[in-house]
Amino acid sequence: MAKQKVALLTAGGLAPCLSSAVAGLIERYTDISPETEIIAYKSGFRGLLMDYKIEITKEMREKAHVLHRYGGSPIGNSRVKLTNVADCIKRGLVKEGETPLQVAAERLAADGVTILHTIGGDDTNTTAADLAAYLGANGYDLTVVGLPKTVDNDVYPIRQTLGAWTAAEVGARFFDHVSNEQSAAPRTLVIHEVMGRHCGWLTAATARAYIQRTRGNEYIDGFMMNAELKNIDGLYLPETHFDLDAEATRLKDIMDRTGYVTLFVSEGACMDEIVKEREAAGDVVSRDAFGHVKLDTINVGSWFQKHFAKLLDAERSMVQKSGYYARSAPANYEDLRLIQSMVDLAVESGLGGVSGVTGHDEDHGGRLRTIEFPRIRGGKPFDLSTPWFAEVMDYLGQNYRPIN
């Protein structure tokens, strides 16, 4: 076999898997192909275009296991769409007249890279797919193998994306502390906004993890610290519809009876309605290079706060977001196992010249395989028929119905 040279990059938002995935790739190549040279492009596709890279030395290989202790990305992230020429020129990533895909391909060729591993979500891996297609059409001999990370767990046709399990567990731990704010003042409304643009999986899974974490708590009869204070009273996802007036009536009864209400809200819940409301008022809604609405400018949690605080006669209301805390955590045990299996297949595919994204393919019986790039896309909704979701909603005592 000809000598290989591997390049790594992480891109998009953070997820609790990037550091461990980078470590895992370095460790696996070192174990089975120690002669293979490894580099990493700093800050994702931005580093590839700008020629910012890290040489992975012998000492770095020997200490790669340390990266499993940390969240974030040890090689940096960015959001760059190689097919959005105007955006790349505007940001100074390429010059006028240059094509980002060509610049990226020529950089990889000049660096002698034969295997590129992209670690990211649907945007990262669809960008990798664009790059792989360009390379193939223009005679570049390069294998591109992606690993799927996103806390949203919303990539077709992948059953479970890297980092999502950890984000749910850490988000539940975050809110276990925040929920105690209910004791700070009478008639308090606390809204926990959880990441998830189009998919409510993480919000639902975080609620499930929180219920599992708190349902066995011991309390002392007579004090305010009790099961009702620690409860979740409402769960709202992009995939579910609710009647505002009916929910307000239900929740006001809880507020009148207990003195507090807790809501878990996906950051994409009611997003279309909020965007229409904002645009009808004459506001310009900001979008990123991929055309996605910038959710931090929409502020779904604040929309829920504005409407429900008034309807529930809340004397105090607050929105707490676990997103950055959860997505920057180190991988938990479940994710570490998933990362290892996907990394092993990614290295095998890279050395075997098979391009695609590793994952458990829902269209192939959930089998772990290297999925063809054209089949990778984002926006997969949470399956409301998932048995544990029905258990969560029964526990909350909340009615819901699918949007479609």
Would you kindly provide a written description of the structure presented here, covering whatever features stand out?
This protein has about 400 residues and is α/β, with parallel strands linked by helices. The chain contains 16 helices and 13 strands. The protein has a seven-stranded mixed β-sheet with strand order 3-2-1-4-5-11-12, with helices on both faces. Helix 1 crosses helix 15, helix 5 crosses helix 6 and helix 7 crosses helix 8. The model has no long low-confidence stretch (mean pLDDT about 95).
Structural class: alpha/beta
Biggest β-sheet: strands ordered side by side in the sheet: 3-2-1-4-5-11-12
Radius of gyration: 23 Å
Oligomer: single chain
The ordered H/E elements are: EHEHEHHHEHEHEHHEEHEHHHEHHEEHE
Average pLDDT = 93
Helix content: 40-55%
Described by strand count, sense and barrel closure, the largest sheet is:
7 strands, mixed
Query: Would you report the number of β strands?
Result: 13
Give unreliable regions as ranges: none
Distinct helical segment count = 16
Principal-axis shape: globular
